[in-house]
Amino acid sequence: MAKKIDELFDHDFDGIREFDNDLPGWWMWLFVISVIFSFFYIMHFHVLGFGDSSHVKLMKEYNPDYVALPGEQNAAVLANVYPTYKSPFYTPGIDVMQQDLRGGGAAAAGFVFAEEAEVDTSVVSLADAGAIAGGQKIYAQYCFTCHGAAGEGGIGPNLTDEYWINGGSFPEIIHTIKIGVPVKGMIAWSTQLSPEQILEVGSYVNTLAGTNPANAKAPQGEIYIAEK
Amino acid sequence: MSGNVEKFQYDNTIVRMFLIASVVFGVIGMLVGLIIAIQLFFPALNLGLSFTTFGRLRPLHTNAIIFAFVGNAIFMGVYYSLPRLLKTPMFSRTLGLIHFWGWQLIILSAAITLPLGMTTSKEYAELEWPVDIAIAIIWVIFAINMFATIAKRREKHLYVAIWFYIATVVTVAVLHIVNSFEIPVSFLKSYSLYAGVQDALVQWWYGHNAVAFFLTTPYLGLMYYFLPKAANRPVYSYRLSIIHFWALIFIYIWAGPHHLLYTALPDWAQSLGVVFSLMLIAPSWGGMLNGLLTLRGAWDKVREDPVLKFMVVAITAYGMATIEGPTLAIKSVNALSHYTDWTIAHVHIGTLGWNGMLTFGIFYWIVPKMWKTKLWSTKLANFHFWLGTLAIFFWVIPMYWAGWTQSLMWKQFNADGFLAYPNFLETVIQLIPMYVMRAIGGCMFLIGFILCIVNLVATAKQGSFETVVEDQAAPLEKNGGHEDGYWHRWIESRPFRFTVLTLIAILLGGIVEMVPMFVIKSNVPSISSVKPYTPLEIEGRDIYIREGCLSCHSQLVRPFRSEVERYGEYSKAGEFVYDHPFLWSSKRTGPDLHRIGGKYPDAWHYSHMLEPTSMSPGSIMPPYQWLIEDELDVSKLEKKIWALRKVGVPYPEDYESQALEDLQEQAETISASLKEAGIEAPPDREIIALIAYLQRMGQDIKVTQK
Description:
Chain A is built from 7 helices and 4 strands; from the N terminus they run E-E-H-H-H-H-H-E-H-H-E.
């Protein structure tokens, strides 16, 4: 049916008149399609349960092979999965690991952190100037705020004296950097630095011993004398 | 017929009053915006004062622009167009004056309380409870004046502009009242009735629809009056206006949850936010089409008339903002855009483009009309037009760039599986040049506005103000005329039924989303280890609210690997059950703080608040030295415990009597831990309370992990 274009209404409001033109076709289709799409969107995610919930999507981000638990797509069922808090990395049968501050590489590899409980005594300090310079750069970026620009200490302990709170051997220093001292506010740097970087910054810290910087913080912890 | 004509007058003085108020507060609001924009690359601009920090001025900027600049412009337009469209004077000049002065007093109270840190922290609803009540009263007075005017009209049918005015009045009242339920602690302090996820849902139902029903629907009403007037062309399509009006107001109200995508809000509510945003594209564009197509055959006028130029850019900006909004509501896009400057750019397409440019267009039209003269300088208005249009580009392009840059940096992993930019500050420093450019854009826009004022004042000076305008019309015939054509003609001549239908349309979405959130427990799975805040933490949290920390810091870790790696465990609904109000925030100029608890030593926080750059070189956070100097005010502690218990936080009976003791005990331990690090901080300072709160944040779920 051909409709008249620009047919004026026989009426005006304060001089404003109105046409009664048809709605643009593409506009109508845009509206209709958005409504139909919306219907299928809701069906897909919340009625048929095909779409992943935000939670399951995160699990798949860590582990592409992750298989959702029965009902895990559904918030109501999740409520029972978490009577008390459980890590999203929780899988039945394996104890929840303290994952809060764990790093990307480790997490992606399957969330096994047990080896970090042990001090790796095999690590040795790097000696080449490049590595030390790299370590110094990392130190200047992350460590100085608490340990001072020259390692003299501040919020954190002095790193230049012979006293160490968590052990002063090189493997112990590396271990402390890796797992942090959460109770004292030192984060586990294994979340932010690669093992190589941790080795470099640890090696740099090693070079600070006995430098006697100004404003040095009083000794804390126990004395450690390196074995000859 | 001609013997039946009645004479009456339109009052222009009230229109002039709202016009002046809009201009004055517009300049102030934009100036405050410019100041905080500069603070983002020059933090010292707060001059070391607490009142002028970004956190306290940001709400002042948003409130001034939305409620003072745009608000007064709405009233200006309504008081001008409504009587003329209904062929009757406004119902009451007295009510109009109460409305005007009441509204200006509310704005004044906002200008005083917000810099003083008296805030509820809920975005665009920051004003404290006595002001909330005043807003409700003044709004009702406006509503009475409007509906009484409609009741004594001489025009049977309501024109489309009035439909939009009705929707605005009804919906804003509902939104404001429901979102403002709070329990007073003192004259200027209260806690939200709702907690955590529920508070977030109510707040963004409000916040989203404040955009819809304060910045959009009334302006569509203004467009439907002033555009055909200025262009002297008929409106393109009546039937389009019917469909897009009802679709718009019905659908808009559902879309609030799109502000909470990937948060602890249940997935089903997020999905409703997504789909209703998508369905909103066509209804929004209906308004744009009806505006632009009205100009068919008048484009030669657009070339010459600055009024139409401003309006064309405004309507185009409306179209851009309303296609962008639904785009940002798609979850995968939102994963990128949320918390970044992209959102800020999006908002300013709407406010600078749609609201700003349409307001300027109306100013340029209405001032010569009311002062019975011609515009003083068309050339200057044209210059303003180009300056303003360019300013919008200068403003938004750097901010889009900033948003994309930062978001991609947040999400970037290196080959070893570590965050490529683990230090949040790296991603901020990257944006500084963009912030500088944005401030230049803002400055241009403000200069344009000042030129506009010069032009308007000169126009007024050369003309003579017409206080009242005579008009005449036949009275409305009772039951006269037969109903013809559309069913909709019928409802248009019945304002009461029209209003009821509108009310039903705007209530549905809110009810469907909110009721399940409040009554079905599984929507907020409880976590047994989550406990109420200690008295010291309550005080610290109130300092966090007072300083407007949430202007820059979110408290919600989204379920993405990039966020879990950066901040820690993603945020769960059950963690916020005692958060009155919720403090998730919507912008990360600084890092998320939900898992800040226990991350750094107390001394780190102390030093950081005293001088942020000492702990984070290059930080754009201002120092908060007054927290270190000022004593903590514990005089309201008992009242706070009482109020929080009233809204459902399970403090034991009579805990008030013990609260202060507990507070002091906890303060001593923090003071002692600072001393250990060589910092002398008496336990009665504000900083101690803030540290207590920061160290508690996000910690409860870690208790059961071991």
